Amino acid sequence: MRDGWPAEPAIPVPPAPTQPSIQSSAAAFLAGLLASCRSVFALVLVGTYVGIGALGHDYGFSLPWLIASTVLIWAGPAQVILISALATGAALFEVALAVFLSSVRFLPMVVTLLPLLRGPRTQLSDLLVPAHLTSASMWVESFRLLPPLPREQRIPFCNGLAIGLMLWGHIGSVIGFYLAASLPALLTAALLFLTPMSFLVSTARNSVTLANRLALALGLVISPLLVYFQIGLDLIWTGVIAGSAAYIVQRLRGAS
Amino acid sequence: MGRELTPYLVLVFVGFLPNEIWRLLGLLVGGGLDEDSEVIIWVRAVAVAVLAAVIAKLVLVPPGALAAVPLVVRLGAIGCGYMAYALARQSVFTGLVAGEAALIVGGLLFPS
Asked: How much is the pTM?
């Protein structure tokens, strides 16, 4: 094995030198799964999904439905919007549009994650699972953990990481669902507050370039203004206006 | 209409598909982009700004039980959390704990 020969030379093994071995992929997946346990987001996701589990229980959704929503949507804000809007009787089209708008961040997230994941032999189909598993937590942790890894290990590692983070979310949902009956309102509020609080500090921590720091600051200011003046598509407009302004400032600084 | 099935159809058509479109678009758009290209730098800034908008909306127009906490407490708590994060040499955990503590103390002091 050490020098590359098959362990059992009597059994003809079809040579597959261009493919990463199943063993190394499984090891990378497991490493990702374990990395999720050491991530600050494990705690954050438990907390966030305790809040979502409690919200779902209060609004009369079943636990299997909540778990399925996490598997299929895997976006805290979108799930909170879906649950609360459905429960408060909004029209289905309106709910769909709100979920659609709340999730626009996944487009740039997937676009920026792809170059990190893609190797010379990566197929589009290999990227379907990591694209579906892309979330704010997975995105932040991928940028921290993937760059030192060899290219062929990154996709399985990333899948393991995201599925591990999702399992922490499921644990939170179960806890929240069963705590909901006895959880004081203020504690539920504190658990729902975990999402904006953790997203703010982790995004601030991860924004090392001038453009990203400015985009964060401008986005925090512009978004409430657009919401206040009831401008439609406020998430998209905030992203385009604040993101572009921040990008232009960085370009001008770099050019001078 | 089966009582068992309908909520899952709603989940797929109203939750899953509108959400998943962006990930699939990202997969298609991202086909030929380089990690350090200008477009990627711009798109990354847009992503951060959208995330900032989600953060702001979760604090200003919050879901469920969080809406029962007065706005001034929510704003004070997110400010406390950020200050603690910055003072503690960018510790995410310190920021979280400080923000949560401020929200709970504020919620107790200013019940809605």
From this structure: 0.70
